[in-house]
Amino acid sequence: MTSWITICDTCKREDWAERGTGVTDGEALAMLVEAAAEGTEVRTRRTSCLMGCTHGCNIAIQAQGKLAYTLGRFTPDTEAAQAIVDYAVMHSDSDTGRVPFRDWPVGVKGHFVTRHPPLPDAD
Q1: Which of 4, 19, 79, 87 is the most exposed place for a label (fewest CB within 10 A)?
Q2: What is the b/e burial string over 42-51, where b = at least 16 CB atoms within 10 angstroms of the residue's CB?
Q3: Can you tell me the distance from the alpha carbon of 100 to that of 12, in angstroms, rounded to the nearest whole number?
């Protein structure tokens, strides 16, 4: 089952205004994650606000019938983007969405904010 990475493109880290950049930190991270995900089985999409402002930069990893995760507090850089994609690939390869801690990329450790159970079947 294909896993999706949803990236909040409105996230701004605390020092965003002082840095004077016109691109939000979320947009910068989104561009990096999208590039890192090219050629993998995971898909990406952007959304305006995951409502985790105190944890910016935020992403969600989801797939039908699997555990879903929200992660945050990322710096928008290539290392973070690659770790996010690497974790999402493992999530996609898992039957349940659960990835053993020992297999997590170092770049996602300490960034998990929430875990959500899969939605029940409609029946």
Answers
A1: 19
A2: bebebeeebe
A3: 30
